[in-house]
Fold this protein.
Amino acid sequence: MTDMIEVEGLDVAFGRGKHAVRAARDVSFRVAEGESFGLVGESGSGKSTVVRALCGLNPTWTGRMAIAGQPLAARRDKAFYKLVQMVFQDPYGSLHPRHTVDRILSEPIAIHGLGDAERRVTRALEEVGLGPTFRFRFPHQLSGGQRQRVAVARALILEPRVILLDEPTSALDVSIQAEVLNLLRRIKRERNLTYILVSHNLTVVAHMCGRIAVMNRGRIVEELSVVQLREREPTQDYTRQLLTASLGYDREAIARFVDFAEAG
Amino acid sequence: MPETPLIAVEDLHVDFATPKGLVEAVRGIGFTLGREKLGIVGESGSGKSVTGRAILRLVPPPGRVRAKRLEFEGRDLAGMSEQDMRRIRGRRISMVMQDPKYSLNPVMTIGKQIAEAYRVHAQVAQREAMRRARTMLEAVRIRDPERVLQAYPHELSGGMGQRVMIAMMLIPEPDVLIADEPTSALDVTVQLQVLAILDDLVTERGMGLIFISHDLNLVASFCDRVLIMYAGRIMEICDAKRLDEARHPYTRGLLNCLPRIDAAGAEDLPVLRRDPAWLEQGL
Amino acid sequence: MSLFTRSATIVNPQGLRAWLLSDAPGSAFQARCGRWYLMWLALKRNPLACIGLFIVVGLLLMAIFAPWLTTTNGIEQVLLDRLLPPSAAHWFGTDELGRDIYDRIVWGARITLYIVGLVGVIVVPVGLVVGTVAGYLGGAIDAVLMRITDIFLAFPRLILALAFVSALGPGIENAVLAIALTTWSPYARIARAETITIRDSEYIMAARLQGASRLRILYGHVVPLCLSSVIIRLTLDMAGIILTAAGLGFLGLGAQPPLPEWGAMISTGRQFLLDQWWVATVPGLAIFAVSLGFNLLGDGLRDVLDPKSRDS
């Protein structure tokens, strides 16, 4: 069976010539249908770049990418967006400040001419745990967790099969994060979705995903299963260091930290 | 041996008068700080940042600060004149904030900024100030201090910038450092490296540190004692090492809803149920 | 939920206020009304802006109810009553052809509004379209559109108007066109600056990720955010537009006699300035009042509509 998501030799560069920055280098991985795949890394690791190239926000890439067996071209068409959707990090920035929740959720319906907007919108709101009282509010009348739920509802309205989550809970309080993560898991189970979760937080990724790819400076350093992570079996030094750092402050361990500089 | 605590706070209230009504950010909290690392943990809206600013009387109007006791080494801070307060800020009590992008002056070189910070509190020549700046940069483990002295803030990485902030705030050798989410904007490995520097400096100099953060795990592993704040009140104070023995349901709730690498990922995270009774409780 | 299911509460003023300030609006209409109401409350808090609003609304009412506010049509000559000073019969006196000046001012309000409205209706859409397209698409299109904008910016208003009018003949419509041609450029610039700021926002990215066409993004997402700045600029520009129209009228190039255009009234009143000061001064005061009104309102609107201070 073909994998849902295939990425092979992905290279993304910004700028040209001498000043070009290679944000992603030779990135390859596969995600099966119904799987939850994590991309972990610190800032500048290229994890967000990969996911943005995948959903077409970044047209300057080389390599090979395929979704559900269909290879992707430089630009995406409407059919693609019915298959793949994205949830962004900043709940304060991903909703248009002048649109009501109803407008935000009705727009994809209108764009794709799906019809039956009333039913779809109310159903989407229910599914993310927001009642009808939220339907005509503006984003500034919602809390961070509520905005993120609206963002999830928006991603679900087109009934995609793949959802890319770019740090979906990094800007949320810990208690709200737990609610949103639970929501994401429930939705995935109910609809048999495929997730790629991008995060710098190893504990969140370990909780949500089955397999993880660790990135540093644009390259995938290691791919491992969460079980291996738990058993403390990472093979690469970088992954081990990241794991140690995620466990909390440990003075002796920190003294041994290494700066993983530019590999070239 | 009863030593006067560095900071003593009793019944602190901070209110903001807004067009929508009175907002009580801090509703009667009290604690003391000795020569130790004290962590203040809370979610957004808990009042933890406002507390830090209230100690330094940096709460902007329309905020109002009142307290039964707000003392630094036995001296009353609340009633002090602004002039005296200026002699304390930076010199005896210093503050490091979250994002060096916003707290460093973008149009001055690092060297000039640190030297200026020093000369505000000590009457020395520019050259002496620069020398002290260089020493301080070495103390925060910056490998090529000369280059950094000549650099502008936008040329530094986040971790480097925060180290410069720490250098700048510790150069007058204060007794107390208030750090408001000093590492939240940094990568996790850099975060810990910066905290290690802070740890060493604080221990070396016998300073008191108030570490404000939303990251319970980090605070528990870094600090000596932890204060948990919720809705402007303190829910619990305990030793950092005994945090898993915490009794207040809010603390327990926060601890439980953290995802862990070691826990079985098969189950949903327990959700924190906010008991309205907590709004009336508090130490 | 239908608007009319709430009709019982609307009749009661306390209910209306609660309906407007409701945290859980039941329809898009209610949500929008709520937003307008909050903006109105914010504007009310600023006394100068209220004065400005009062003057502008006064101008509007004067124009609408002109037939009921005047006794003559301001155009017919009554030569027996030439140059009478202000009195109970003629509140602002009469001009050199015996026409009641008060009446002419009231009828002139219509002309002022017509000019200002027509300029606004041309300038705002053109500026928005040019600015948002240039800002969003960038690259060569941006460069070309901005150079065109610069060209129009370089023309001094009055000189272009003179050129236009000498080519096409005098008259209000030509004057309006001339003013509009020299006024639209800054609006394009403002719209472009706003567009560039929001172009890379995540909500725009989210819209692209739904397959929204560029037109939909520009019209539905970008323009609503540029609208506040442009409207504020328009109210602040009104004063200038009125003065330019008055200037053209003064030079005989705008509204033609016997139309009671305020600038033209000043022009003809010039010769009587020393002895019959009211003929030129009163229309001058009218222009001053209206310009001030728009200015104050524009300033007030800026505080109310500034997106940085309102939406968090």
